[in-house]
Amino acid sequence: MSLHTLLFKPVDIAPLALFRVGFGLLLFLEGIGAVFTGWVHRAFIEPDFTFSFIPFYPWLQPLPGQGMAYYYVVMGLLGALVMLGWYYRPAIIGYFVMWTLAYWMQKTSYNNHYYLLVLLTGMATLLPANRYFSLDTRRGAVKKTYHVPNWTRTVFLLLLWIVYTYAAVAKIQPDWLAAKPIAIWFEAKKDTFLVGPLLTQGWFQYVVAYGGIIFDALIIPAIWYRPTRWYALGIALFFHLFNSLVFQIGIFPYLMLFMSIFFFSPSSVRQFCFRGDPAPAPSIESFYSPAFKKLVVWGWALFFLVMLLLPLRHWLFKGDVNWTEEGHRLAWRMMLRSKYGTAKFTLVDEEGASRVHLPSKDLSVKQALVLPTRPDMIWQYAQFLKREYGAKEVYADVQVSLNGRPAQPYIDPKVNLADEPWQPFWSHTWILPRPSP
Question: How far, in Å, CA of 397 to CA of 414, rounded?
Fold first, then answer.
């Protein structure tokens, strides 16, 4: 079968419609839950200064007052519309735009899962997921259909394969193989219900470290391959529920489990979930014109090329990415390092007088904890100090511990960060190299 035939052959819409329902429910819970768990307050409302992504710094800032709480409630309501398939297209576009802006607004609580949600909501804006089992078909806004082109499910399978494969490759490094970050996190989670005593056992930490590599590398092929599918799903269920219990990482484990629906044949999903509404034989008519088919193929080819290249960009920079952080984000480098540090800044005014400034004066507790371990946030904070306090020169004295090692100097204390430019594609010489073991 040619690639063209594989991508555009008609398949049952049942998995896509069911995914829309579950995805919309999780989007609703993510938006509303972020407010009621206090996450929005801690990330957006409590801090006086917010670390937005550098291309959008400093103009992209949270709404004032309680604005971000209302912002997330609106996102939750849009998620509910996606679930119901009611005004689906404007709802999913709205969620995608609002979530992406919120993602760019702060990186103190950066999470690979938040980035994944940017990608998934963006992909969902292009899909006809409301053409079945939706209120949009009930109200006549779109025509009910039983079949969609196969690429509407294939793109999700390819993205999952990329995410898990890069996560597996990133784990093949000395600290992970020695279970160092696992040991640190599990020690902090030793009071976890049911599994707490197990987490502190050295042998179990090694099982998790090596099992994590094997799981990430093989879970997608194992679910894709029909003879091993149910065994793999059982393992995935245990893996994701364990992560949810220990690390409380929101909707991600459940999203990954729910996306498994795309690995089943579309006809079997209908047989199980929509048996009372059998699909007619697919039409032999093409879904798109030849010109539009080319646009679809080249558009998705470009998207997946970017997805394949972004996780490799840390090779453009010198040093260990776990230490320098250069190229760490957008690369599926999940849970590979535990870093703690301290930071103090020296401000020099126009007259040459100097004084020591501590980040706790301007930042929230969470921001002050994360700041010393992220060079880009240190640079941003230096620009803030220059602007807010009128400092002519800003020097940073930062000490950082990586994966339990003794703290080491992290930033060159002789470099005036106030005058240093940010270089997104080049190594920053003021980040001191990681000391040799």
Answer: 9
Residue-level pLDDT at 434: 87
Residue 166 in tokens: 């890069």
Residues 6+ positions from 208 with CB-CB distance below 8 Å:
179, 182, 186
Whether residue 88 contacts residue 136, with contact meaning beta carbons closer than 8 Å, is answered with yes
Question: Which tens digit of pLDDT belongs to each residue from 371-392?
Answer: 999 999 999 999 999 999 999 9
Distance CA 127, CA 401 (A): 45
Q: Where are the beta strands (DSSP E) in 123-258?
A: 147-149
Beta strands 393-402; 339-348: pairing state: antiparallel
* pLDDT confidence band for 287 (50 / 70 / 90): low
- The phi and psi torsions of 337 (rounded to 5 degrees) equal -150, 145
List, in order, residues 6 or more apart from 178 with CB less than 8 Å away.
209
Q: d(Cα 284, Cα 102) in Å, to the nearest integer? A: 43
The angle formed by the CA atoms of residues 316, 321 and 326, to the nearest 5 degrees, is: 60
